[in-house]
Design brief:
Blueprint lengths: L7 H4 L2 E4 L5 H14 L4 E2 L1 H4 L6 H11 L2 E6 L1 H4 L2 H12 L3 E6 L7 H4 L4 E2 L9 H4 L23 H42 L1
Parallel strand pairs: 1-2, 1-3, 3-4, 4-5
């Protein structure tokens, strides 16, 4: 390759830092950012060509980008690469935008930056995942029997049905929420371009 030919990482204004476990989860936001930035986005599996040294390409992309989007959750917190990426971005004085995907504690270096909140509120503070284990495996039952003589927790069943409906409503609302976050990101990137 001719040295005067820019690589994909040279041309990318936005660097995507994330755990590969969350690739499908973040894809709608990344695609919207990619459209808004005219594809000037570096994301490892999309931007690194076969045969290239991926570690070198990542570091080069970080060097040339203006903004680092850090998708933060339990998976990225466990990733040494994500840590190295945001630390390199901070050290190089890049614009850092953390995007929270869950309630994983945000490390001090990232806490200094205003984040975008994409966390999913757990229904009833997490009771949905807790309630099924309560009493069900105990020999003591406080529930009436149905016509087959089986113990039935009618209130719990109604609760779970309501939660299923809530989850469905949440899924339907995500398209709107994703668009809102993409607009926030686009606004920040636009302001960054104006400053430049």
């Amino acid at each position: 390759m001719n040295d005067s030919t820019p690589s994909r990482s040279d041309a990318a204004d936005v660097f995507i830092s994330y755990s590969s476990v969350d690739r499908d989860r973040i894809n709608p936001i990344v695609q919207l950012v990619r459209a808004m930035k005219r594809d000037s986005v570096f994301q490892d599996f999309m931007s690194i060509r076969p045969g290239e040294k991926w570690a070198d390409e990542i570091m080069e992309a970080l060097e040339h980008c203006q903004t680092v989007l850090v998708f933060w959750c339990e998976h990225s917190a466990a990733s040494d690469w994500v840590r190295q990426e945001y630390e390199a971005g901070i050290q190089a004085n890049k614009e850092i935008i953390p995007i929270l995907l869950d309630d994983t504690k945000v490390p001090d270096p990232l806490r200094a930056y205003q984040w975008l909140d994409f966390r999913r509120d757990e229904p009833h503070g997490g009771l949905f995942s807790f309630v099924p284990g309560v009493f069900r495996h105990s020999n003591v039952h406080y529930y009436p029997k149905d016509e087959h003589g089986e113990y039935r927790d009618w209130e719990s069943e109604e609760f779970h049905e309501r939660e299923r409906e809530r989850r469905q409503e949440w899924k339907e609302s995500q398209a709107t929420r994703t668009a809102e976050i993409a607009r926030d990101i686009a606004a920040r990137l636009t302001r960054s371009e104006i400053r430049d």
